[in-house]
Design a protein that fits this description.
The complex is a heterodimer of chains A (107) and B (116). With 107 residues, chain A is mainly beta. Chain A contains no helices and 10 strands. In chain A, a hairpin with a 5-residue loop joins strand 4 and strand 5. Chain A is globular and about 40 Å long. The N and C termini of chain A lie far apart (36 Å). Chain B is 0% helix and 48% strand. Chain B contains no helices and 11 strands. The chains are: A mainly beta (107), B mainly beta (116). Chains A and B meet through strand 4, strand 5 and strand 9 of A and strand 5 and strand 10 of B.
């Protein structure tokens, strides 16, 4: 089974709202990565957070990592319609992906 | 090249035929990964290589699937005696360092395989 599992499976919000999605994993990691995939397209790497980091920012993205709970969250602030995509997490020791969170941002 | 390339982009084949899917990673990238993705699902890990060595093939569904990377660069995923359930998007990714550790993966555009 895959290491990274995202929830919720689907999230629908209005433009300008924040979107939060979560990822849980099972074993120890060195890093965790978040990817975005627009419908029918390839995956694009968004951000990597190392196991000794608790929070990381990149533009409107904020990622947190709680190694004690084996979980991570991705927050997208001030969402835009262009953020509509599926979001996946993956860990370095098991490059398997979950089903992803399908985010829809309504204009 | 500028990114990971895959060929062909689309492949339609009849059930029972063999197919070979090619991946050309970013130059200098050590690791190469193969994934399969069904519509609406996340990528399903198949196998990966560090240089020419296949490190993990536990994701290959059965012995009809095989992969090679003989010179540590281009890789070929071969599916023998294709079945309709093999229809999917096959994606390749590469990363700079071994095992993807500490560095992100760069994904190719994928090969859409349709078995009729």
């Amino acid at each position: 089974s895959q290491q990274g599992e995202e929830d919720p499976q689907a999230l629908s919000i209005q433009e300008g709202e924040n979107a939060t999605m979560n990822c849980s994993y099972k074993t120890s990691i060195n890093n965790l990565q978040w990817y975005r995939q627009n419908s029918g397209r390839g995956l694009v790497h968004l951000i990597l957070i190392r196991s000794n980091e608790r929070e990381k920012h990149s533009g409107r993205l904020r990622v947190t990592l709680d190694t004690s709970k084996k979980s991570s969250s991705l927050l997208i602030t001030a969402s835009r319609a262009a953020d509509t995509a599926s979001y996946f997490c993956a860990t370095d020791n098991d490059m398997r992906f979950g089903a992803g969170t399908r985010l829809t941002v309504k204009p | 090249g500028a990114g990971v390339s895959q060929s062909p982009r689309y492949k339609v084949t009849k059930r029972g035929q063999d197919v070979a899917l090619r991946c050309d990673p970013i130059s200098g990238h050590v690791s190469l990964y193969w994934y399969r993705q069904a519509l609406g699902q996340g990528p399903e890990f198949l196998t990966y290589f560090n240089y020419e060595a296949q490190q993990d093939k536990s994701g290959l569904p059965n012995d009809r699937f095989s992969a090679e990377r003989p010179e540590g660069s281009i890789s070929t995923l071969t599916i023998q005696r294709t079945e309709q359930r093999d229809s999917a998007m096959y994606r390749c990714a590469s990363s700079l360092l071994a095992g993807g550790s500490l560095y992100e993966q760069y994904f190719g555009p994928g090969t859409r395989l349709t078995v009729t």
